[in-house]
Structures are given as structure tokens and as C-alpha cells.
Design goal:
The structure is a homodimer. By secondary structure, chain A is an alpha/beta fold. Chain A is built from 15 helices and 19 strands.
Chain lengths: 440, 440
């Protein structure tokens, strides 16, 4: 395990720098944008997640002796490039959508202004983080809405790479989940952790009753007992018999949930355990969560679907050069011309427009001198707000975007941003973005 | 970044241990199996990947002061459990399918025999690794077959979490890919790295010609020039004009590939560049690779689809208690009874059966005393071989399964295992497993 993030990148970033250094073009001021051409999965909106992680990874983006030795010994770049990399420290500016914000096709989640070499080097790392974290957060946001305010726990660590699991817990929490089963996410990001018990715990003991007794003895009657290892009805009866009517919750992990949940609720009530909650965890996604809206479920545990973006495991983000200075120091807007992969060149600032009721109605990308430039404050007709914020200024990470503080701010920002969207945004069907993106 | 892997797990593993310690059941000898109930995505076979990574992660599965402090301060487990965790070091036995081997529904990829507490603790970490790595390797193996021997490069780092990217490069390499764009995978696992250039490199320069000149000057004529930033035909002409007919390769990243590739090949030949290769990279998966079988493509770069398991981002692995000693020290086979999640209890050894032509015809799980036991060598009628190998014995990792050596062995093992499968295994359509799994 290496703490440097510098090699979490594609080889071609470094060979491009090598070639540009030799050609004298590496130091041209350049603007890169990270954006999605479309919302993968035909989502109605996307959720920005990964910003804080990206800024933390940027701090550790340094080529130490180990990294440089690998590059030299394998002749990946020339000695001149190795020397340049040894001194690498991002010194440019980064603007972006703040974490937790919603986004749409073309939204520049990150705008990097620096030399070409400094900016191109961050392409793969930035995309890895945002493609994964945004996919998880976007799925999680839909699930949060589908749950109608009932708490959701992220329990998918086992269904994604062991480090992605920690990122997924963070992204889901920002997008509305209440807790995670992942301990590292608890330690690293201060996210509340939760857990019940596995079927193996029941099976280990000589009877379900002995297993429940062991769990209640250790964790108290407020614990959650897993009641479906053998027969659910008997499991519920045993659970209340062992823990009493003050049992915290029962968990159901199999069966036709709407039917099973209704029966378990009726049985708990009949046994006098009106306060005992029901949590369900059987391969849920936003659609099955929504289908349980009228069931007496108290909380949901979601695994596979949230950590794999519910059918969209990567958000389709790209990182593109949109402007640079030419040989004469003049700014040039650029874009690839291929018909199927067109993008809009040029520096942009972004404004979100609202109607008179405060509902978002459009995302406007203003082509011009970019964020913080002259277009700021320009009258676009009606209420609007600037979306982009400075994330890094002259190499210095701006406060409030990283660590536990950044996560709390992102979670609250997400809640507000979603509340401003038009009702169609909450549709779980595939369709067009909830608001259009215009370019001016 | 913490080098301990001990918190890459779900909270409930630790609370179960806490309860089992208090109940006196934590030390019961137990057997856990990691297996897939079915082949996700209706694949014809699965590919084992992640074994070496799991064994390496197991070596670092230690609760240090930082981990223990987090557990204590957050009252996740009792002081007695904290003390037990402080001394944790896996001391049991692990058998498994060796990495690179193919597997089928029910195949015990990993069999852990230890105390309940020692074994249950590894559930989440093992599943995270195998669910992701096997999904990637299984997709990669299909792509390798579809490419008919032409080299495939893994270029999907940007489409999965930044650490999963390194795992994906490793899994794809084992399953038949030739190289990766990921530098950390090159450093950590010795996998050959490759790279071309991005559109941003062309756009940075004042013309495509200047960009090509810069790249050829730095990287030599053997490099690969990206020719589709503007007009592909003009791009190819410029590339040969700049590099000469000795140009290594051109890369095409957009357009209707069968048509474009044929035109580019004809143009290269017309320009005298018969030896210049063509590499394509436009959102490929096993189906588009197969569709290019008769096109003059020389190599493929695959991104999103391989690192996201081509529609199956998690392999559907579970980790289940299948046997344990009871209060009297007698072995008991156990299995959850829920109809939709049934599994087969008991210790197993596994034999692969062949027909007279050496083609695999069945996977047989022998219920009994487990791997290395008396059923070894039993006559099953016709040719067969043992599949399980010892991975960890009394806590000691067996040699040959980790590091660069383990990867090389796994890659060769995969090649041999796939070659033994019946022809239906190579079908890209959804369907039944290529061979059945029997239990005796």
C-alpha cells in the first residue's frame, strides 16, 4: 500500500507530458473540464460526489523515490520528464460544482486551469473518483427519495472492491443514507456505522433461541435480530420470547417482502411488540424500496445496487481540454470534432435558473472568461445563482470541502439541491434530464 | 491511507464475535465457504481472480492501535472483544480454487476452516475482493476469446474506483489481457503497461501535425498516433507523413468501427504503411470485439466494460457457514433454509471430470471430510482431477499464490483451464453453465 496517489493514473498522461515538455508546449496555460455528456442510465439528475476525496488525493499526488524509480527503470518517460515529475505539485486553480450538488449533461463538475502538463496529469485519478462516487451517489439519492424519509443503511461493502466500499459508504451518506455497515468509512469519515447479525451466527448455535440469547446478552434488547434463517414466523416468536417486547428490531432478508413484512408486523403487534421495528435487506434497489412504500417497513439496508450504481456502475464522466493558450499566448477554445463525441469548447461559468416559485428550471453554461469572471452577476432573466465554487486556488485547497466537515456540508447541500428540483426529477423511470442545459 | 486491512469489513462481523465470545461459542471449529449460487449475467463459466490479493490482504489483517481505538471509543464492541481482536492473527486452514481456474455455481472458491470467530471476521473482505475481481476476470476472459488471439489492453482505470482500477488491471491480465494502462498495476504487480495519447494532446498543439511531430520526436516512430481528433482520413495521412511508413500504430476511438477500420487499413496500405498496426478503443465489450473478428484490427483497448464486469459488476459471491462443531464437539452440517437462498451444507472436496477427449464434463462436489480427506482419489468413473489446493495451512500462506509469481501462474492456469472447456463455454449468449455441478 503506497500513500502516494501519483501512479493511480494511465501511462499516457506521463508520456504526453514527456512529449509536450520536449516540444515546448507542456507549459501552455490550459483549461480542462470534467463532465458527463449524458446522464448514464437515463437518470433525471446526477449527484456530485467525490470532490472531497479528489482534493485529498490531490494533496498526496507526489512522485516520491519509489514512483520515480519505477518510471526510470521501466523507461516510461525520459530523464527530463522524471525530473519534472519529481517537482510536481499542482499549482493551478480548480473550480467546481460543490460536493452534494446536482448536475446535468455538460455540467463542468471540475474545471482545472493550469499548465497543460499539470492539468493533464490529473485526468485518470479525477475520472476514477468521480465516475465511481457520482454513480453511487446518484443511485443513492433516488433510493433516498423512494424511501419516503425512512432511514437507509448502506450495506454493500462486499459487492464492490474493498477500497471502493469505503468510497461508496461516503457517497451514499452524502446522497441521503443514514449509516453504513463499513467500519473503515466510520473511522475515516465519521459516518455512523450499524450492523445486525448474519445467518452464520444463528447457524453456529445449537438453536435459533441460543443464538438470539447470545446476541441479546451481548448487545442488549435494542439490537436487531435476524429472523429468517429457518421459519420467519417461528423466528419472530422466538425473538420476542427471548428479548421481550422491547426488542429493537427484526431483520428480514428473504421472501416476498411486501407479504412477509405485513405478516411480521401483524405478528409483532399481536405479541405486544408494537415498538419493535422491521428492517429489510433482500437485494433492494430504488424500485423495490418504492414498492414497499405502503408496507410497515421501518428501515432499509441496501447493498449491491447502491455500490454498483444500480445498473450504472460508472457515471460516464470525461475530462477534456476545452481551452488553451497558443504559441502566441492567445486563448483558443478547442473541442474534439467527432460527431458521436462532440463537446463544447471554451471556459464556462454556470448559473442555475429558477422560476418564481423557487423551482430550478435550467442550467446555463455561460461561455466566456470562466468562473469568477465578468459574466458573474449578469442578468439572465429571473432568479438564478452561481453554481461553481473555488476548490483550489493557486495550488491551495480551499477550506470546507474535505474531511468530515466537507461531508456534512455536502450532505446538507444535497438535501437542499434536490428539494429545488421540479417533481419530474423524482421519477424513477428512464427519461430526459429534469432541467435542460443551455449554452450562451 | 491505513495499511491494516482489518476495518475493511462490516460492523456485524465484530459484534457477532463479541456475542459469540460471551456465549462461549466463538471458538467452535467452523467451515465457511465462498461461492456463487449462480453465474451472474448467465455466464457459461466464471473465472477465479483475487486469490493472491486476498492472501496478501489477510497478511495485513491486524488490529493495530488505531483500529482498536476506533472500536473502543465508538463502543462498537466490548473490552473483551477488543482484547481478542488485538491478538487476532488467522491461524486456521484455507483451501481454494487456485487463481485463474474456472468455476461454476456452487464451486467453493475458498473454504476457510478455523474457529467461528477467526473465520467470520474475513467474510466482508473476502467477498469484496472476490466479487469484484472475479467479475472483471470473467468479463475479460470472454473478451480474450472474442479477440481470437489479438492482444487486448485494459484501459478502464478511469471507469472504476481508483484502487479497484489496480485490481481490475490484475484480474484482466490473469484472464488473458496483455497489458494495462494503469501505472500502479505495473509497479505493484509487474504487469506490462502501455499507452498512446489523448485527444487533449492533439488539441493542445496548433495543428494535428505539430502534435504528431511532438509525439514522434519524444516516443519514436514505434508509437501509436491517435488519428480521429478531426478527420480520420486526413489524420492517417498526416500520421504517415510525419512518422513515415514505419509508424507503429494508429488508434481509432470513434465512429462505426468495422467501416472505419477497413478504410484506414486500405489507406495505410495505399500509403505504403503495410506494417503500421490499427488499434481500436471505442467503448468496446466482448460483443463489439467479436463483431470486429473479420476486420483488420491488430489490437483492442477495452475500458468501461471490462472494469465493470460487462454488465455484471459484482459476481454474486456469498460466504456461508457450512459446518461447525456443536457443544459436544461433533461436526454439524448447516445451511440456511430459505427457499430462495438455499445452499448445500457440509465440507466438500471438488473434482473436475473429463471425457475421453480431455474435455471437462462436470464439476463434482464430494460431501464428506473436505479437501485433503479420504475422498481424495476415489474413483468417480473416468478421468478427473482435484480442484482445491491449500492456500493457507495453520495460518501460513502457501507459496506460489501471491505476488508476481502468483499472477504468472494464474495467467497460465487460466489459459489451460479454458482450453479444457466444451465449445459451448465460448458462447457469448446468456445460458446455462458450460458444465453441470453435481453433489455426492
Amino acid at each position: 500500500m503506497h500513500t502516494s496517489t501519483a501512479l493511480l493514473t494511465d501511462r499516457y498522461e506521463l508520456t504526453m507530458i514527456d512529449a509536450a515538455l520536449q516540444a515546448g508546449t507542456a507549459h501552455r496555460r490550459s483549461v480542462f473540464e470534467l463532465f458527463a455528456r449524458r446522464l448514464s442510465g437515463a437518470r433525471r439528475y446526477g449527484v456530485v460526489a467525490g470532490t472531497g476525496r479528489f482534493l485529498e488525493a490531490l494533496e498526496r499526488f507526489r512522485f516520491g523515490d519509489d514512483e520515480l524509480r519505477f518510471l526510470s527503470e521501466n523507461r516510461i518517460v525520459s530523464d527530463a520528464a522524471v525530473d519534472w515529475l519529481a517537482d510536481y505539485r499542482f499549482s493551478g486553480d480548480i473550480w467546481g460544482y460543490p460536493e452534494g450538488e446536482v448536475f446535468f449533461p455538460g455540467s463542468p463538475l471540475v474545471t482545472v486551469e493550469s499548465s497543460f502538463a499539470e492539468g493533464v496529469l490529473l485526468e485518470t485519478l479525477a475520472l476514477s473518483i468521480f465516475n465511481y462516487d457520482c454513480a453511487v451517489a446518484t443511485a443513492a439519492s433516488r433510493m433516498s427519495h423512494a424511501a419516503h424519509g425512512k432511514p437507509l443503511a448502506e450495506m454493500g461493502s462486499r459487492r464492490t472492491g474493498e477500497h471502493s466500499a469505503v468510497s461508496a459508504a461516503r457517497a451514499a451518506y452524502i446522497a441521503g443514507f443514514s449509516s453504513t455497515s463499513n467500519l473503515e468509512a466510520g473511522r475515516r469519515y465519521g459516518i455512523p456505522t450499524m450492523g445486525t447479525a448474519a445467518h452464520s451466527f444463528t447457524l453456529l448455535h445449537d438453536s435459533e433461541r441460543e443464538a438470539f440469547e447470545a446476541q441479546v446478552a451481548a448487545l442488549g434488547t435494542g439490537t436487531t435480530l435476524l429472523v429468517d434463517t429457518f421459519d420467519i414466523e417461528q423466528g419472530v416468536r422466538t425473538a420476542i420470547d427471548v428479548a421481550g417486547t422491547g426488542l429493537g428490531a427484526v431483520r428480514i432478508d428473504s421472501g416476498d417482502l411486501p407479504v412477509v413484512v405485513a405478516r411480521v408486523r401483524a405478528l409483532l403487534d399481536e405479541l405486544g411488540a408494537q415498538e419493535t421495528r422491521i428492517t429489510v435487506t433482500n437485494d433492494l434497489d430504488e424500485h423495490t424500496v418504492a414498492a414497499l412504500a405502503s408496507s410497515p417497513v421501518d428501515s432499509f439496508g441496501v447493498g449491491t445496487s447502491v455500490v454498483t450504481g444500480s445498473g450504472t456502475p460508472a457515471m460516464g464522466m470525461v475530462y477534456k481540454l476545452v481551452a488553451h493558450e497558443d504559441a502566441d499566448g492567445e486563448w483558443v477554445s478547442v473541442a474534439k470534432k467527432s460527431a458521436d463525441k462532440a463537446s463544447v469548447g471554451g471556459r464556462k461559468s454556470v448559473r442555475r435558473l429558477y422560476n418564481d416559485q423557487g423551482v430550478a428550471r435550467a442550467e446555463v453554461c455561460l461561455l466566456g472568461d470562466g468562473p469568477g469572471g465578468e459574466s458573474e452577476g449578469e442578468d439572465l432573466g429571473g432568479r438564478s445563482r452561481e453554481v461553481l465554487v473555488p476548490l483550489v486556488s493557486a495550488g491551495e485547497t480551499q477550506s470546507g470541502h474535505v474531511g468530515v466537515e466537507g461531508i456534512a456540508a455536502a450532505k446538507e447541500r444535497h438535501r437542499r439541491a434536490v428539494a429545488e428540483l421540479p417533481p419530474i426529477a423524482m421519477s424513477l423511470t428512464r427519461g430526459d434530464p429534469a432541467i435542460p442545459t443551455h449554452y450562451r
